[in-house]
Amino acid sequence: MSSRLFQKIREERGLAYSVYTYLTRFENCGLLSVYVGTTKEDYNEVIKLIKEEFKNIKENGISERELRKAKNKYESAFTFSLESTSSRMNRLASTYITYGKIISLDKVREDIEKVTLKDIKKAAEFLFDEQFYSQTIVGDI
Fold first, then answer.
1. Superfamily of domain 4-132
2. Torsion angles phi and psi, residue 27, rounded to 5
3. Which residue ranges does the record assign to the Peptidase M16 C-terminal domain (predicted)?
């Protein structure tokens, strides 16, 4: 499953080779980041498309099908991340540092399953508020 941004920016428009998002989480704050490898000729269009997609999700939410696919993808990635001892160790340390406690695997899976479309809409209204956007552009532009 590729993201809406990947589909729009790379597949439909051919404006970038690499497009992905990632989260940095802490107990009471965090960061949603978007990475795009693009050209100096296309970066303004890419930024515009990112803002448009975030606005669309904020205003219209996502479909039940998208939510199910996202849950499946997240849970699969989570499960595969537990295959090595070092990954398990890193997960335990990370959850302890972030939340001050160890969170069981069953609790993580339960929390993933509990996410609703309403939860996504609420998160989007907060995360996709343009007054909190910042950008870093690296390269000869």
1. Metalloenzyme, LuxS/M16 peptidase-like (3.30.830.10)
2. -60, -45
3. 1-73
Residue 1 reports pLDDT greater than 80: no
Q: How confident is the model at residue 36 (pLDDT cuts 50, 70, 90)?
A: very high
Q: State how far the alpha carbon of 110 is from the alpha carbons of 20, 46, 68, 106, in Å.
A: 26, 36, 14, 6
What pTM was estimated for this model as a whole? 0.85
d(CA 30, CA 22): 11
Per the DSSP assignment, residues forming a β-bridge with 20 are 35
Rounded Cα–Cα distance for residues 49 and 34 (Å): 12
Contact 141, 43 (CB under 8 A): yes
Question: Does residue 60 register a pLDDT over 90?
Answer: yes
